[in-house]
Structure formats: C-alpha cells, structure tokens
Amino acid sequence: MYKTAGVTLPGGSCYSVGAGGHICGGGYGLLSRMHGLTTDHLAGVDVVLVPDGRNPVLAHASPQLNPELFRLCRGAGGGTVGIITAYYFDRLPAPPRDAVLLFLTVPWAQFLGAGGRERFAAWLGRYGEHSRRIQDDPRSDGLFTLLHVTHRSADMALTVQFCAREDDLPPGRNVATEADRVLRHLLDAVFLAPGAEGAVEYELASTSFGVGHAIVSEPATVSSRAYDRDLKVPGAVVMNWLDAVQYLDGSGANQRGKYKSAYLKDVPAAYAEGLYDALTSPPEELLGDELPEEGLPEGFDTTSLIVQMDSYGGTINRWANDADAVWQRDSQVKVQYQVYWHDPEQDPLYLAWLRKVYAAGFGGSAGPGLPWDPEGAHYQGCYINYPDVDMLEAASGGAGGAGGEASDGGAGAPADPATPASWLELYFGPALPARLVAAKAAYDPHDVFRHAMSIPTREPGR
User: Per its UniProt entry, which superkingdom is the organism in (predicted)?
Assistant: First the structure.
C-alpha cells in the first residue's frame, strides 16, 4: 500500500502480525493518535458465512448492507462469525514523510529509596495526565509514546515517535520544529515536578544500533535533511518514516509469551502503587503458594516481564463512530502486559507471575483484579486483540465459558457491582454485548466459527 498507492493503515507495531485479524479486532498502532484505528477507515468487508451450519455463503457487509454483521467485523475480533476474504477502505491517510525518534532510559534505582513508591506513582500519574492534557491539541496527535515499565531488575525505557501532518503546519514550521515543541512539553510534563524531590531522572539511550529489518541495509540513525538543525531536544533524531517504522520493529528469536491488556482513562495512584509493589517484589514472594517447593528454576528471567504503557486518545477518541465494536473512546493509555520465556515446563510459573503483577494494579486480593470500576472513572476494560482466556473466569467470577458456550455463572449476575457482568462487558462495554450476541446468533446461529473468546450465540448467564 505504501509503495503502490502512497497510503498507509494507522495500525500495527509488530512486524509479524497479519492484517486480517489485526483489522477486525480494532487494530491500532503508532499512527492511531493521528489517524484513528484501522477499523475507523473500514468501509466494507466480504465474509464467508455458514448460516445453515453446512453450506458456505459469501456476503458483503457495510454500514448500509448487513450493518450488524459489519459491526462484528469492526472490532469484535477474528474467527467469530465467518472468514473475511476482502476488506474495503475509505480514503486512507498518506504516510508521514519523516519521523522524529527519541529513546530514553529511566533508572529504577531512583524509586527504591524512601518515598520511592509515591514518587513512582506520581510519575506514572503525570504520564497519563500529559496524554489527557494534549487530547484537544491536534498538532500533538502525531506524538506516540511507549513506556516500558519493567521489574526492578532491569531499568525502564521510554520510546517516543513524533510525526507531523506536514501539509497542515503553519508557515515556517516543519516536522523538526513541531517535534521540538511537542517533545519538550512531554519531557517537562512527565519528568519534572513542582518540587525538586519529585523530578524523575532519565538518560539518553543509544540510537547507534542497526536497523532490525532486512529491508533497510544500513542503520538509519539521522536523516540528512537540512532541518535537522531545527531539532533541539537532546538525543532526538529525524529519519525517513519508513526507515523509522522498521527501525522500531526489529525481529528476535522465537519464544513463548503471554499477554494481558487494559485501557486507562488516567493512571490512578492506587493502580501505580499496586504495580510498584508487584514490580519491586521478588517473584518468589509474589507467587506465594504457586511457587514450587524447589523454588524458581535456574535462569528464571525477571527482566522478561514488561508492562508497556502506550499512548492512546487523540483522533481515536474524537472519531464519531457508532457502527463498530470498539467502545474504548475515552482512554489515554493502553497497557500491554507481556512476559516471555523459552522452556515449556516453565509455563505455569511465568503465567502465574504475570497474573499476579496484573491483579496487583487493580486491587489484587482486595479488589476485582480487573481494569474495571463501576462508575467508569479510571478504566475501560480490555483489548480483544490481546485475547486473554484468564478473563473468562475472572470477570463475574466465572460467567461466560469458553468455546462460544455460555455458563450460568452460578447465580447469574454478580453480586459485586465492581465486577463486569461478563467477560463480554469487560471487552466491549455495557451497551454492546447484547447487540454483538444478537448479530452472532443471526449470522452464525450454529456457532460454526468459535474459539475460547469468540462472541457467543447467547449472553453469558442466560
């Protein structure tokens, strides 16, 4: 698309993710604050259905034709109603010409002394508040940040990308002058504080490593464009946008992994403090009864767990759209919990460790352990493109079984109002599940297309 039509999709950050599932799950990426989600540009789909349970039928869905089927294909996840054979898009955005990148290291040591927990929480709070503050500034939409919050055994990192709508820039401005303004505001807002004791230190990370993709033959650290001189932020570099995309997305060895997700409207202190407690604790302590008698195996990698806090908001939240399955249009941070390992025999340990870290931010044993609050003040649930079967049981204490089958969830609706009615509500909000289930029942009544987290043919608990 980039080379043949001069356009791009505003989604993706991992080179190995296929477009098919990425788009129908509400895919997003480093250009989404500027241009919205991939589904926001979707005009129609061709999808193979099996309505009688035996004979395939090709159908077209759009806002005008089969609109509820179209909704299922715009954010409800893949493999839930049929096989999508074609995507149709409205006019797609032109890619940026250039990108500004900045890489920072944030040492953990500064948070480990007296008052470190509160300082850490204030810092993450400022990170979320900065996103909220620039929500109504379209000239900041090209800013995307990825904050890697790690276990204390490895320092944290912040990756920053800025792209500009260059045709909309005021006279005399370019991507470098805009980046200088936007990046300085980011650094001041996140790392400075009213008191000197609250300021957070960071270090410039090296940008001298090679590009991790075979398409780029040489390290693309700094472009030769004349406006490099306009970029005053120390450590920031300008490069061709396509080079920047590939620079940020190097490949690595195959490994095992687990992911969890959360949408945050802000970063409340209780969340940040719970996260701090989990990430500064030895895994043995956090695992508790789930730790085997022999303890952790040799080589257990505490640096392999990352809580990645990505930018959200911007155009995503301003996009007027009531025809999709993405209800998270008021969040500012999208969190991806991830952990990696190699030995299949260590699956239970790494999975349990990630579950403990995840729950700690949302109240742990004292709360629901989910990104959910009944008034919707802080959280907007989870992202279906990071499917997490743990949520089938965590939401409503077990309501909503796997494989398209709905369990009765015990007594039905949960007694705790702080818990979503089912896993569907956690992913699609309070209003959409009934419509998604009705559409599934209409277009795939025999549940031909099903997996652990596909839309069921009837609502959980009913």
Answer: Bacteria
* C-beta of residue 20 within 8 angstroms of C-beta of residue 73: no
Coil, strand or helix: which one is 296? coil
Written in H, E and C, the secondary structure of 5-43 is HCCCCCCECCCCCCHHHHHHCCCCECCHHHHCCHHHHEE
CA dist 207 → 105, 136, 149, 371 (Å): 12, 31, 20, 35
Q: How many residues in the chain?
A: 462
- Which residues have C-beta within 8 Å of that of residue 34, sequence separation ≥ 6? 10, 93, 141, 142, 163, 165, 314, 315
Phi, psi torsion values for 228, nearest 5 degrees: -55, -35
Contact 188, 200 (CB under 8 A): no
Half-sphere exposure of 328 (CA within 13 A, CB side): 35
Main-chain dihedrals φ then ψ at residue 84, nearest 5 degrees: -80, 125
- pLDDT score, position 456: 96
Which residues are CB-neighbours of 38 under 8 A, at least 6 positions away? 9, 10, 11, 22, 23, 26, 27, 28, 29
Domains of the chain: 2-89 (3.30.465.10), 98-247 (no CATH), 389-456 (no CATH)
The predicted model scores a pTM of: 0.90
Calculate the CA dihedral of residues 54, 60, 66, 67 and round it to 10 degrees: 130
Helix (H) or strand (E) holding 257: strand 256-264
Longest dimension (CA), the chain: 69
| 413-451 tens-digit pLDDT | 444 666 788 999 999 999 999 999 999 999 999 999 999
The total of other beta-carbon atoms located within 10 Å of residue 446's CB is 13
Q: What share of the chain is helix, strand, coil (3-state, %, to 5)?
A: 35, 15, 50
Buried b (16+ CB within 10 A) or exposed e, 363-394: bbeebbbbbbbeeeebbbbbbbbbbbebbbeb
